[in-house]
Amino acid sequence: MSFSLIVAMSENGVIGKDNQLPWHLPNDLKHFKALTMGKTIIMGRKTFESIGKVLPGRKNIIISSDTNYTVPDGTVIHNINELIAQDKHDSESEKMIIGGATLYNYFLDKANIIYLTKVHSVIEGDTFFPELSNEWEIAGVEHFEVDPKHEFAYSFITLKKVKL
Q1: Can you give the pLDDT of all 164 residues of the chain as single tens digits?
Q2: What is the DSSP string of the chain?
Q3: Which residues contact 155 (CB under 8 A, 6 or more apart)?
Q4: Around Cβ 36, how many Cβ atoms within 10 Å?
Q5: 143, CA 20 to 30 Å: which among 3, 66, 85, 116?
Q6: pTM
């Protein structure tokens, strides 16, 4: 079983502003759906609340330290150790960490793949993705230019962890 991260970030590492994505890229949302459909997605409470609902076609796990927090149609786990313990008995091959920053920081060294949407602009924000070490190498890139539906150029980049 492995964890993969899926994240969209700007050139300056921004992943959010005021608990929202600071851009709207319809093709990135389609890409996210295609990569996560049928899989387990794991997110923090703030990320879940920014989405506003469980995402259909996926097992939604929300991590919250609030023991009274509940999510209809979702699974709430109250600490990461609980998730790791459950995971040892799970045969699913890939679980997707979809945010936020706290979970990205925690799972970065445990992940084998990062599905990165790089937004080719410097964007103001208050939440950042952690700095990537040299243990990550590019396994694939697909680039897209600005068009009427996408105000920024962007790339879908697959990063794989290399053994150093």
Answers
A1: 689 999 999 999 999 999 999 999 999 999 999 999 999 999 999 999 999 999 999 999 999 999 999 999 999 999 888 887 776 667 677 999 999 999 999 999 999 999 999 999 999 999 999 999 999 999 999 999 999 999 999 999 999 999 76
A2: -EEEEEEEEETT-EEEBTTB-SS--HHHHHHHHHHHTTSEEEEEHHHHHHH-SPPTTSEEEEE-S-TT---TTSEEESSHHHHHHHHTT---SEEEEEE-HHHHHHHTTTEEEEEEEEESS----SEEPPPP-TTEEEEEEEEE--BTTBSS-EEEEEEEE---
A3: 117, 118, 120, 141, 142, 143, 144
A4: 20
A5: 3
A6: 0.94
- Domain hosting 13: range is 2-161
Q: What is the CATH number of the domain that holds 11?
A: 3.40.430.10
How far is 77 from 114, CA to CA, in rounded Å? 23
Contact 110, 117 (CB under 8 A): no
